[in-house]
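Sanity check. The docking grid for pantoate depends on where the pocket ends up, so I'm generating a full predicted complex first rather than guessing from homology. Inputs follow.
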Amino acid sequence: MRLFKRVEALQRHLQQRKTAGDAVGFVPTMGALHEGHLELLRRSMRENQCTVCSIFVNPTQFNDPTDLAKYPRMPEKDIAALARLGCEVLFMPWEEEIYPQGKDTPTPEVDLQGLDATMEGVHRPGHFAGVVQVVHRLLEIVQPDRLYMGQKDYQQFVIVRHMIRQLGLPVRIIMCPIVREADGLALSSRNLRLTPEARAAAPRIYEVLKEVLAQTARQPDADLEALAAAAFAKLDQLPLKPEYFEIVDGTTLQPVRTLDEADSVVACTAVWAGDVRLIDNIILKWEADEEE
Ligand code: PAF
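Predicted complex below; grid placement will be based on this.
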């Protein structure tokens, strides 16, 4: 595996691969890699001759400095996992490589059309501006053919897809399914911080999401706002504390009342498990759009 910390050296390597006609797949991460990340990388390695993984804990997407400070960092373990997997390139940049003019390095104007004003956007002000800023910069550096992102951060996927389309960036974005523990807990770097009590309760999140899916399968005209409110109440049992449970149009992220109001419908939630904030979702209805 080749490890690059500088943009220039990375770009020299990638230029050789591109000149040879090889496709480049890209998986951006913030490290603390788990099986969910490895699945994204395996898919990229199947579909591209060259795969780049980036590890960069992006300060501009953390609205809470404590969350940034507590974010798990384990570079040696990550490097070993990527080498075992056979990932060709790891880009682990210094902060000044990503933000050469400081954290206010400008990003092209993207009108998020309210996609950042719901769910995560309400509870983590400024978070998606930071995500758009760093993903745009990483795409500018790597210029991949394909970008792989996980369904677990569904709102992030929709926002990055929107940015790519609005700016007409020449990259195809691919969403990969959520990877779960045997008991249903969605894999996340934050799971490492769960206390035993919170860890024991956390699988309830997926159980409740599955109950919503079963309910809509049984009753396709179910009132989704009522289902979401009932799901919220079921999750509201210590040590779990839900922040939101919303059933939304998979494209606009606006709440829907019934399944037939949108081509794709997704139930999304954020839940505090003790002092760790977890997010999860389930697709209730899906119609891939023509570009996917
Ligand atoms: O999902 C993440 O890990 C981050 O938000 C991303 C996409 C790597 C940007 O920092």
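Relevant for the grid: The chain has a mean pLDDT of 96.
Also worth noting: Residues 189-285 form a domain with the Pantoate--beta-alanine Ligase; Chain: A,domain 2 fold (CATH 3.30.1300.10).
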